[in-house]
């Protein structure tokens, strides 16, 4: 059991809950609330992805997954993709 992955997974799960369910979009760094046309969609997309990654990190922590860098790379690539998507589709020009 890898406690570091469990802690990171728990924090990601909490962040996903706060952003996705509670709509705490102020927790998202680097986006201008005045320019986003659909804050609910942004919160659901980012919160859902971060929550799912939190569950994956927790499962990896329980089963002692050895390739942690793969999980971190998937997390960063997914968040980068969400940044691009939200800037193209959800931001008013």
From TrEMBL:
Spans traversing the lipid bilayer: 6-21, 42-63, 69-88
InterPro entries registered for this protein in UniProt: UCP037672 (IPR017259)
Name this protein carries in UniProt: DUF3784 domain-containing protein
Species assigned in the record: Gracilibacillus oryzae
Entry keywords, A to Z: Membrane, Transmembrane, Transmembrane helix
Pfam families for the chain: DUF3784
């Amino acid at each position: 059991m890898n406690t570091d992955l469990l802690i990171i997974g728990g924090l990601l799960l909490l962040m996903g809950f706060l952003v996705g369910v509670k709509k705490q979009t102020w927790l998202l760094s680097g986006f201008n609330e005045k320019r986003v046309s659909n804050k609910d969609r942004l919160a659901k997309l980012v919160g859902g992805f971060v929550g799912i990654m939190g569950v994956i990190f927790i499962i990896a922590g329980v089963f002692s997954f050895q390739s942690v860098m793969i999980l971190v790379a998937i997390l960063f690539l997914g968040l980068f993709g969400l940044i691009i998507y939200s800037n193209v589709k959800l931001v008013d020009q």
